[in-house]
Specification:
The chain starts with 11 loop residues before the first strand and ends in a 5-residue tail after the last helix. It has 186 residues and is of the alpha+beta class. The chain is globular and about 40 Å long. Strands 1-2-3-4-5-6-8-7 form an 8-stranded mixed β-sheet, sandwiched between helices.
Length: 186
């Protein structure tokens, strides 16, 4: 699902305040703090499996680090191949870094990248009960509730533009999602 460009551990994605990079063994201390709902294995196994998924292109798992401290992991974000032409989003941010818009920045950047480089029609995310802050984050990034309320599933569809849309008449000039409309990749 994910192209070769993303399958090299030197890949990193830049946002105004963050680097999103492949997880390293040194990140296991942060990963060990993930809630059990996110982590069904040891932190070191999580790093190994995340790197394997990145390498094979089945998923893209990245660690969030502040630009000024790139060795300090503060969160994790992941896109995984889902059903059909859909990718599933998961994320977690350390408590000390919440409420600053950092995860919103990461979700927007990774979503824009995925819609530009991958042949997907939508990104989905599920929110566990009681995680209203995560639901608000997804809504702020353009995700819409999908399915019954009990499913707590959110969807960000790709916006398809008619041929000729944009100044040059190509689809590449048009944003492909609500996320991409608000973010320019450099």
């Amino acid at each position: 699902m994910f192209p070769d460009l993303l399958r090299d551990d030197v890949f990193r994605l830049e946002t105004p305040r963050l680097w999103l990079r492949w997880p390293r063994a040194a990140d296991a201390a942060l990963i060990a703090n993930l809630p059990q709902t996110c982590l069904s294995e040891s932190a070191s196994d999580f790093v190994l499996h995340a790197r394997e998924g990145n390498l094979t292109g089945r998923s893209l798992s990245l660690v969030l680090t502040p630009k000024q401290r790139p060795a300090e992991a503060i969160g994790v974000i992941r896109l995984q191949a889902g059903d059909g032409e859909e990718a599933e989003l998961g994320f977690w941010l350390g408590e000390d870094h919440r409420g600053q818009g950092l995860m919103r920045e990461a979700v927007q950047a990774l979503g824009a990248l995925a819609f530009r480089l991958c042949d997907i029609d939508a990104i989905s995310a599920s929110v566990p009960p009681g995680a209203e802050q995560a639901a608000r984050l997804l809504a702020a990034c353009g995700f819409i509730p999908a399915g019954p309320p009990s499913a707590r599933r959110h969807l960000l569809p790709r916006v398809r533009r008619p041929a000729g849309y944009g100044a040059t008449g190509t689809l590449a000039t048009a944003p492909s999602s609500a996320i991409e409309a608000g973010l320019a990749l450099e």
